[in-house]
Predict the structure.
Amino acid sequence: MEALEFEKHIEGQYITRSLEGRAEALAEQSLSLNQQLAQTSQFSNLSLQMYGLYLKMGFIRNQDDYHRAQAFFKSRLPAIRFEDLDFLGKVYYCQAHVWLYHICQEFAPCYRYAQRWVNLFEQEPAMKSLHAPLYLKSLHNLLSTLFHIRRYARFLDTLAVLDRFSADIDFSQNKNVEGLFHLYRYLHRINRHYFEGTFSEGVSLIPEVARCIETNAYHWDAHRILVFDYRIACLYFGNDDYTHAIDYLNKIINQKVIDYRADIQCFARILNLIAHFELGNEILVEHQIRSVYRFLLHIEDLQQVQREILNFLRRTPSMRPSDLLPEFRQLHARLLPLEQDPFERRPFLYLDIISWLETKLENKPIQELIREKFRKRAL
């Protein structure tokens, strides 16, 4: 656009002997490019608005949330065909749809749009360095979706592509791109340990990640640090290190600003209760349950899964040890059907409560049980 405007300026100021026919061509090119830029801007706006919605609500909780997310998206969706967009317009088109299906936990269509987004860059490799942040985000979203749909082999292949990025593209002079690369690399290396149940290996990543956060090396925002705090807490929890898990969960719980990612705020509190339960802090659990219950009511995030877990934890202080196993078995039986409910399965994306209950029923460490499940899926 700047080149066209400069050319029009030249034609308007100097006798170039090329004005005949050129004036109309320049005007047409300018109008066409303006329209193209406007279309791209509409989809980039939609993508940004969907990200804002995700920060506010996280995954949908119920039918009302689902309709709200769908209506929000459709009311802002431009009536423009994918084929009529330029490269960036197509990227933002895919990105906006990825956000919609991610929020709605519809991971099959989310995967299709995330793969389509990556394919745009594979078809035009020069764009990878020119628009490196968008390329990294395409890989990140594809990896996140593959994690949710449990496509381990495809996840590893895509993670290898992400790892090669630093060798293929020099970003040493661009701190923003370098920060995004390490952000996504750490997140998905942690996810790989979740996949495999190798939590004891995964905790070795924590000092490196913590150092990046403490030194503010890449200027990660509060939301990204919040996500890391929760994932690190889950690594420690999976490694049966409940004390360190609580340390990281308290970083989330004690935040002064809690007007974003209420979903993580919610599950940090529930995981914190379970960690204290594991440590035998019955009195503390009994005291904190009321606080957690009030918090969930305040943010209107009390689903059936949370009710079942909180009711179970409320009863445990008065139970004899011999009563616990039947209670674990009953809770497991009540939660198992909810894992398939489209509006109740959200908690299982944050906390593998089913595997935790099964460790109690089978008397096994949680990472051993998750590793066994992983091996069975791989066969």
About this structure: The CA atoms of residues 278 and 329 lie 17 Å apart. The first helix runs from residue 2 to 13. The two ends are 55 Å apart (CA to CA).
